[in-house]
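ARCHIVE CARD
Drawer: 12
Card no.: 0347
Subject: one protein chain, sequence and derived structure
Cross-reference: see card 0346
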Amino acid sequence: MIRVVDAFTAQPFSGNPAAVCLLERGATDAWMQDVAREMNLAETAFLFRASDGYRLRWFTPAVEVALCGHATLASAHVLWQDGQLAAGEQARFYTLSGLLTADRESDWIKLDFPAKEPAAAEPPPGLLMALGLEHASYVGRNVFDYIVEVDSEAVVRSLAPDLILLAGLAARGVMVTARSTAGEFDFVSRFFAPAVGVPEDPVTGSAHCCLTPYWAARLGKSELTGYQASARGGVVRVALRGDRVWLYGQAVTVLQGNLVA
């Protein structure tokens, strides 16, 4: 059985779609990559029972990745929806980024993820040009991505980056962010990862593992709400808890079917 779940949204056809494939046992890397390429979504999640939880892996259409928020949210949603887990039972995932957990809190799912704080960095050659920027308020880098703060929300929303240039950077992706001018959000962002087969990701949980400590320090608050201003859009409530980030999101299943190959 495979499902498509829209994550970080309560409305179908918004947020970030992920495919979730619940397996009886592990599968080969080549088969999982083929399935992810066939699904052609930002991420396809593969999981099967292991120990006191589930082994979970994430694949883009091009590569396996070490951390993914929206496909983890989608996986937890499927486990509760199918009755694989009781309503009050915690979802536990063993991943390339260690143990990740998910808990239901009313209509929301809370993910417990590692914080991936950035350090200030010189922009690599071509970064600002690829984004169509003459300058940036801040450029930083964490273990996965570059983070670029710009002057306004309007700049974030109007970006039309050169994806070919961005794909040549030595990083998984680039997040561009600014303080929000809307009262309901603290910050806005967009995320581009053409190097791993994702031109623009609609809503990126793992990017918020960086955005959360960054904006918590800038705004002096540990609980924030971010809006990822992609064409589909999505809301991520976040909380900084030491070296962990809690990501809160909702999810809705929009398709289910069977793999026959």
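Annotation on reverse: The CA atoms of residues 187 and 215 lie 8 Å apart. The longest helix spans residues 205-219.
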